[in-house]
Amino acid sequence: MNYSDYEHLLFEHHDNGVLVITLNRPEVMNATNGRMHWELTQVWDTVAKDDETNVVVVTGAGKAFSAGGDLNWVKSVVGKPEGIRMIQKEASDLVYNLLALEKPVISAINGVAVGAGLAVALMADISIMSETAKFTDGHVKLGVGAGDHAAIIWPILCGMAKAKYYLMTAEFIDGKEADRVGLVSMSLPKDEVLPKAMEIANNLAAGSQHAIRGTKTTLNGWMQMASPIFDNSLRMEMLCFLGEDAAEGVAAVNEKRTPNFPSSKVGGK
After folding, report:
1. Cβ(110)–Cβ(63) under 8 Å?
2. Whole-model pTM?
3. Coil/strand/helix, residue 154
4. Residues 29, 111: contact at Cβ < 8 Å?
5. pLDDT in tens, 65-97
6. Of 51, 50, 53, whose CA–CA distance to 14 is shortest?
7. Which structural domains are found in the chain, ordered by start?
């Protein structure tokens, strides 16, 4: 794909080799619909083939980074094997294509981040987060297991105890706490997030590209070793999407109420 082929991503090229990618559906807080989810799997290959780009900064348009999956899109695939298989492949491609990209990626997390947007935010090599922004993996609130990116990187970033707590409760985490436990590189006041990300990007763009890329790909070996865990998490997540809990979870979010999961009944199936 060429940059002009993307519908929901904006690109700003700088002469020093820095590329700013903006998730661009601000009217729905940059929630990922089917097209945007697919674009987030493809863009890393486009960047890899772009000889004019050495460093990427990714952020969100408006007040959010990305508010998760568009509920109408999620609802349309719950209980449907073909749709679930497609999402499983794309979720896998998003993570593995980001890992395969040798060029450094910096996320400027300017607002709420959930779902595929959060995967991009935390799989980035360096993450700068607003102190007042919040994110959650959120999967268990929908009645599905923590898939996407969480199993491959959260335990590495913040340790197993914190990873289990936040992934099993789906509790929101603000920038200060995310910084404290190691889920992001640093947190700053909101108006300093993008400038800091650009400062770091400019420094990396002026550095030895062979050395920087070699360091990144070497460190990514830790995530590559967790590939079987990640692959299993995706299978588990998608299996849950075929069950009754997922349908109830999506309905509860739509109706802004507490979910009444069938599997939570004592003695239930």
Report:
1. yes
2. 0.95
3. helix
4. yes
5. 999 888 888 888 888 898 899 999 999 999 999
6. 53
7. 3-192+206-254 (3.90.226.10)
